[in-house]
Amino acid sequence: MLIRSFPAGAFGTNCYAVAPGRGQECVVVDPGMDAVEPLARMLAEDGLKPVAVVLTHGHLDHTFSVLPVCEGYDIPAYLHPSDNGMLSDPARWHGPALAPLITGVRLPDPSEVRRLDDGAVLSLAGVELTVRHAPGHTQGSVVFALDLGSEFDDAPGLLAGDVLFAGSVGRVDLPGGSWEAMLTSLREVVLPLDDATVVLPGHGPATTIGRERATNPYLAEAGAAAPKGRGL
């Protein structure tokens, strides 16, 4: 599997391209602020042709460039329906810090965005992405599980969006966020994963589930909050 990425815009949102190999079709993940030109350069370096955009959630720093990317390559976008409101009414969901970005931004009509459902397997560009709904950062946050292949020693992978970072997790203080929901997602979606799983987060460097299980205080809190009588 070929994974390419770059940090987009002022928020350094990781935009990924995932493909079976060089010169092939690919899936674009989270084209954020000012991502159109650097994405085009990154794709050209490996001769990649995008067939879809998949979004881990609806925040502007992950969706800012989705419409021009989709229009430019004539490809669809995918988003969990619980975050459709962030496309139709971004001012309501993003808080005052992102308010200056909202004026003039062009986002897709939610009716034109394909839905991501929990447990669905997307087969796109020779890549299989398993969708897991993981609310907490937003109501519609998802992560994508995938096999990374020989380039990553056949380790499993997780495109984690803003659910899990190296040493931290996504914020829950914006509209639609919930710490209780985040703890449940960490406990039920993240903690059961194999320690060898390579985490490709929405911000910052890659990590592994094993490293985070051993060092991330929020994962420890999620594990400690497990209901009695239930395993991880």
UniProtKB/TrEMBL annotation:
<dbReference type="InterPro" id="IPR036866">
    <property type="entry name" value="RibonucZ/Hydroxyglut_hydro"/>
</dbReference>
<dbReference type="Pfam" id="PF00753">
    <property type="entry name" value="Lactamase_B"/>
</dbReference>
<keyword id="KW-0862">Zinc</keyword>
<dbReference type="GO" id="GO:0046872">
    <property type="term" value="F:metal ion binding"/>
</dbReference>
<feature type="domain" description="Metallo-beta-lactamase">
    <location>
        <begin position="12"/>
        <end position="203"/>
    </location>
</feature>
<dbReference type="GO" id="GO:0016787">
    <property type="term" value="F:hydrolase activity"/>
</dbReference>
<keyword id="KW-0479">Metal-binding</keyword>
<keyword id="KW-0378">Hydrolase</keyword>
<dbReference type="InterPro" id="IPR001279">
    <property type="entry name" value="Metallo-B-lactamas"/>
</dbReference>
<protein>
    <submittedName>
        <fullName>MBL fold metallo-hydrolase</fullName>
    </submittedName>
</protein>
<dbReference type="InterPro" id="IPR051453">
    <property type="entry name" value="MBL_Glyoxalase_II"/>
</dbReference>
